[in-house]
Design brief:
Layout: H1 2-31
Length: 32
């Protein structure tokens, strides 16, 4: 059970990092 929870947390962190990267790149393009 704990292992599954850790896996879900890891995946959600990875997804959020990818989303943050996309948002930052988009903001930089808008700023230019």
């Amino acid at each position: 059970m704990e292992f599954l929870l850790l896996l879900i947390v890891r995946i959600s962190i990875l997804i959020s990092k990818k989303v943050v990267k996309k948002v930052v790149i988009r903001l930089i393009f808008i700023a230019m």
